[in-house]
């Protein structure tokens, strides 16, 4: 794998040697990761790919995905936060031509318009549902699942049961309902939290239904994992990334902006924001994770990043891309003759290089080399950022696996809606 993380553009704001030194101080984290985070084994199941994505599970996913792709023209993923972000990031990045089935998302909003929109898009189509819920108490997916399954039963009668798949905790209420109602059950491993669930049935089943090569994704994850668990601290990109962001936080930076010139990474940015936001933002600490979709948002975020309050540093995701259409002259004197003969990739490359040069003069910039944006790359990106997130949380002294703040809004909402346990 070529150099994955570059710190070339953090100077003059931060000395690369300081990053290497800090990474060295935390070399023990790599040993901990290699041992499967023994202190957190019950939350580190995502490191054990052979358990969460073994042959049996992959075979079952492939068989179900083939059935759904054959029989359905719409597949609704019902889930919120970690329960749908990883799958959505991959699905929305794949060429639509490969999808062959419409993927709809529900259970991630309480807005009536969102619910109505899904119901409208289900009309006249052969639909399957996948409810994904670790504890099956979260209101958004619970409410959407009720509306959507009622719609399915109204349409298909008892046959609706085989169109409902549930991914949940074994032994949970959702599991019991599956046994009672005949919905097919897929396990959400106990030792894997929502935002760490890309390599389990949670992420892999919907990805496979949407036509993604999940074995390639897992290969990418394994390759990245091998690299991160074997490289020494001074060369370990996950540890260096965590060390750089921790040092920048200590020097007063309060936000990290994930920037990319590839619009297909839009939903990946959401996944990244969720991972770091929910894992790291605790105890009055953490970097605010934000994103910039270039080049469009250079005309909004770009202004702020370049000249606004200096609170953010940037991490650029660089993607290898095809040349795309070439700009040909058409005899119209439109003032763009300097683009004649240039493919779109040249425009994007120029835009990226110029942005990196301009922004790094103002604040530190890191770059991550994604390579070709395919399933393998997604697997590598997920593994890289998951490990880096745990390392970062350890360096700032917060628990990467809990989310006590999320519970606060839930308690208040449950009280308003009259949920008994909270009264
Ligand atoms: O990452 C997390 O743990 C959360 O974002 C959860 O995935 C999210 O709250 C959904 O939880 P559940 O699947 O239990 O409904």
Explain briefly what this protein structure is:
Helix content is 48%, strand content 13%. The protein has 423 residues and is of the alpha/beta class.
Ligands, deduplicated: 5-phosphoarabinonic acid
Write down the overall geometry: globular
Helices and strands: which structural class?
alpha/beta
Low-confidence stretches: none
Note the main sheet.
Answer: 5 strands, mixed
Task: Summarize model confidence as the mean pLDDT.
Answer: 96
- The rounded Rg comes to 23 Å
Helical amount among residues, as a percent range?
A: 40-55%
Residue fraction in strands:
5-15%
Describe this structure in words.
The protein has helices at residues 16-25, 28-34, 49-52, 55-71, 85-93, 96-99, 112-122, 139-156, 173-181, 201-209, 214-230, 237-250, 266-280, 301-307, 344-360, 375-396, 404-417; strands at 5-6, 74-78, 102-106, 127-133, 164-168, 184-187, 255-260, 288-293, 312-320, 365-372. It is an alpha/beta fold and 423 residues long. It has a five-stranded mixed sheet, sandwiched between helices. It has a five-stranded parallel sheet with strand order 3-2-4-5-6, sandwiched between helices. Helix 9 (173-181) links the parallel strand 5 (164-168) and strand 6 (184-187). The chain starts with a strand and ends in a 6-residue tail after the last helix. The mean pLDDT is 96. Bound molecules: 5-phosphoarabinonic acid. 5-phosphoarabinonic acid (PA5) binds at residues 80-83, 133-135, 138, 141, 193-195, 278, 403.
């Amino acid at each position: 794998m070529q150099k994955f993380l570059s710190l070339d553009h953090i100077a003059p704001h931060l000395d690369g040697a300081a990053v290497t030194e800090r990474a060295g101080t935390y070399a023990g984290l790599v040993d901990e990761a290699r041992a499967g985070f023994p202190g957190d084994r019950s939350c580190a199941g995502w490191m054990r790919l052979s358990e969460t994505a073994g042959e049996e599970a992959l075979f079952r996913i492939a068989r179900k995905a083939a059935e759904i792709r054959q029989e359905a023209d719409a597949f609704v993923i019902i889930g919120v936060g970690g329960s749908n972000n990883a799958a959505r990031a991959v699905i929305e990045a794949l060429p639509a031509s490969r999808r062959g089935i419409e993927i709809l998302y529900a259970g991630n909003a309480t807005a009536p318009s969102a619910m109505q929109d899904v119901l409208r898009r289900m009309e006249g189509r052969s639909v399957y549902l996948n409810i994904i819920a670790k504890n099956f108490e979260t209101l958004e997916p619970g409410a959407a699942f009720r509306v959507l399954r009622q719609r399915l039963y109204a349409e298909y009668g008892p046959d609706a049961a085989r169109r409902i798949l549930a991914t949940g905790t074994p032994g949970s209420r959702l599991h019991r309902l599956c046994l009672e109602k005949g919905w097919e059950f897929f396990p959400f491993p106990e030792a894997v939290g929502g935002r760490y669930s890309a390599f389990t049935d949670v992420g892999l089943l919907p990805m496979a239904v949407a036509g993604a090569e999940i074995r390639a994704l897992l290969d990418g994850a394994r390759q990245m994992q091998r690299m991160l668990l074997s490289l020494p601290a001074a060369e370990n990109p996950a540890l260096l990334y965590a060390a750089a962001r921790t040092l920048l936080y200590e020097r007063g930076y309060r936000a990290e902006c994930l920037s990319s010139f590839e619009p297909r990474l839009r939903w990946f940015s959401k996944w990244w924001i969720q991972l770091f936001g929910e894992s790291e933002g605790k105890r009055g600490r953490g970097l605010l994770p934000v994103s910039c979709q270039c080049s469009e948002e250079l005309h909004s975020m770009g202004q702020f990043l370049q000249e606004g309050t200096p609170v953010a540093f940037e991490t650029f995701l660089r993607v290898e891309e095809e040349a795309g259409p070439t700009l040909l002259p058409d005899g119209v004197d439109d003032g763009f003759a300097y683009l004649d003969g240039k493919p779109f990739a040249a425009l994007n490359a120029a835009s990226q290089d110029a942005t990196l040069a301009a922004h790094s003069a103002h604040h530190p910039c890191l770059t991550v080399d994604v390579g070709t944006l395919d399933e393998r790359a997604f697997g590598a990106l997920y593994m890289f950022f998951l490990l880096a997130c745990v390392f970062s949380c350890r360096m700032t002294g917060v628990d990467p696996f809990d989310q006590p703040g999320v519970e606060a809004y839930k308690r208040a909402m449950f009280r308003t809606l009259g949920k008994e346990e909270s009264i």
